Amino acid sequence: MSALKSFTVLSALARSAQAALADMPQSFGILEFGPDNTLFVANAAGGAIHAYTLPAAGTAPEQAAAFNLLDVDALVADALGSTGRVVYGDLAVHPVTRDAYVSLSATIDGVETGAVLSISREGRVQPLDLNALPSSQFMLENTADTGVTFWRDIPAPSLTVTDLDYANGELFVSGVSTGEFASTLRRVPYPFDSPATSTSVEIYHAAHNQNETRAPIRAMAIVDIDGTATAVAAYTCTPLVTIPVDALEDGAHVTGKTIAELGYGNTPLDVISYSAADFQGNLSN
Questions:
Q1: What mean pLDDT comes out for the span 234-256?
Q2: How would you class 26 by CB atoms within 10 Å of its CB: exposed for 0-12, middle for 13-18, buried for 19 or more?
Q3: Cα 224 from Cα 285, distance rounded (Å)
Q4: Among candidate residues 136, 35, 119, 38, the one with its CA nearest the CA of residue 77
Q5: Does residue 241 contact residue 205 with C-beta atoms inside 8 Å?
Q6: Are 50 and 43 in contact (CB under 8 A)?
Q7: Which three-class secondary structure state does DSSP give residue 77?
Q8: Beta bridge pairs of residue 188
Q9: Distances from the Cα of 275 to the Cαs of 2, 4, 33, 94, 132, in angstroms?
C-alpha cells in the first residue's frame, strides 16, 4: 500500500451520548461487527464486552447505497413502546445486509432501559432479544473507579469503552482504566479464549500544548500502512494519532505519533478508511 493514506473523521461539537449510557441499568454502548455474523456490544457499566451471534444474515442488497429515513425517533419509539426520551449510543452497519444496528437507552414504562435494534432501509425497526442469542463475554480488568470524574462532571466509568475495532482476529478496545496512565488500549483475541493485552497510551495534544495520559481514544481504525498494522486514532478536540499495533504489548506504555489536529472542541464519532482515485485514475487507500 502507498504511504499516503486517506481518512475521514466524523466529528460532532456536542459531547458523545455515550456518557449518558453509564446511568443505565443495562448499558449498551459501542457496537462493532466481527466474523461469522457476530455483533460486539460494549457494556460500559458492567465492564464487559458481549459477543452475540445474530440469526443467519439475509442477502446483500443489489446496490449498497446509502439510505435516509425520516422521523426515525418515532419509528424507534413505536417499536420499543417508549413514551419518553431516547438517547442513542452507537451505530454499526451489518456487512452483508447493510441494515443499521443501533444501541440506545429509552424510557419504557417510566424506566430507563437499554436496547439494541436493527433498522432496514425500508424503515423496519426490530429490537434484538439479546437474551435469546448465543453469546460470550469478556470482562475488562482494572476498569475506571466510580468515584472519579473527568472534565468536572463526566463519570470515568462512562469512558470504560470508547471504541471497538475488529481486525485480524482481535478486538481492539479503547477506553480508560485505573492507574496513573488512564488511557488504555486493549487487544482481545476473539473468540474470547486467549489472554488479552492492556497498554497505556500517551499522546501529545498540540491544542493543549501538553502530553496527555488520561484522555482516551474516542474513535479508531486498524489499517495497514506500508505493511505495518497501525491504529489510526482520533481524540477529543482533536489530535489524530498513529500507533503501531506491534507496540501494544501487555503492560507497556506507548506514545502515539500525533500527525494532525482537526479542530478545538470537537468530539470524533468515527474513523473511516476509504479508497480514492488520483487524476490518473489510480486508487490509493
A1: 95
A2: middle
A3: 9
A4: 119
A5: no
A6: yes
A7: helix
A8: 171
A9: 11, 11, 21, 20, 39
Instruction: Name the more confident of 199 and 274.
Output: 199
What is the enclosing helix (H) or strand (E) of 79? helix 72-80
Q: Name which of 67-71, 152-156, 227-231 the model is least confident about.
A: 152-156
SS3 174: strand
Provide the pLDDT for residue 222. 97
> What is the rounded distance in angstroms from the CA atom of residue 29 to the CA atom of residue 18?
6
Cell of 175: 477506553
Q: How many CB atoms lie within 10 A of CB 43?
A: 23
CA dihedral 278, 279, 281, 284 (to 10 degrees): -10
Say what the alpha-carbon torsion angle 87, 81, 118, 185 is, to the nearest 10 degrees: 30
Distances in whole angstroms, Cα of residue 268 to Cα of each of 13, 30, 187? 9, 13, 21
Query: pTM (2 decimals)?
Result: 0.87
d(CA 26, CA 260): 36
| Half-sphere exposure at residue 258, Cβ-oriented, CA atoms within 13 angstroms | 19
pLDDT in tens, 229-242: 999 999 988 999 99
